Amino acid sequence: MLAFTGCTYGLSESEADELRIMREKTSHWKLKDINSTEQRSGGNCPLTPHEVGMFLRAMGYTKSTWIYIAAGEIYGGDKYISKLRSYFPNLVSKEVLATKEELEKFKNHASQVAALDYIISVESDVFIPSHSGNMARAVEGHRRFLGHRKTLTPDRRGLVELFGLLEKGELTEGPKLSSLVTKMHKYRGKAPQGRDMRPCLGARAEHDLGQRNPFMKTHSRSASA
Length: 225
What we know:
The protein has 225 residues and is of the alpha/beta class. Helices cover 45% and strands 7% of the residues. Strands 2-1-6-3-4-5 form a 6-stranded mixed sheet. Strand 3 (126-128), helix 9 and strand 4 form a beta-alpha-beta unit.
């Protein structure tokens, strides 16, 4: 994802070069020369793990919130994901929840691995995509079709401006930031519909929603597209 979009904010120079080389060597990616700064300011880049943490805390989620990361390998590994964990220690993924033996059967089947993340994303109490990739759009549409659970799509362009003020020292994390972020997203959350408002009762045939999923789901940044 980062190599494809040219989003390198927060990465080291060597990491940015690695992604650039990856993009240049991928023949079916037509756009090679990408301005990372313009991509980010335009709201076209995924939120970083640190930004996801700041966003969720500003939206009122507490440290006790369980977060499931539906993604492949996170670029940069724990060096970056630890910043999100500092906000929300109950941070899990399929690798944490499942045993090695359980995941072994999916080892050579990337689409099936993605399906695990997809199912949990659809069933989660809250779905918060950090970027608008194909999977995120599919999950949001599926959840809307089923008429359940809340989906909150971050205003990445607006958040980048606020996070820029934080970097300049013109704003600090706390009540002021929380007020600005919640106001910005007042109408961006798609609330769950009542049972009598479901568009299709048969839509639940393959999804037994009798038990609530305790995990709020969020995407984070992955090096793969």
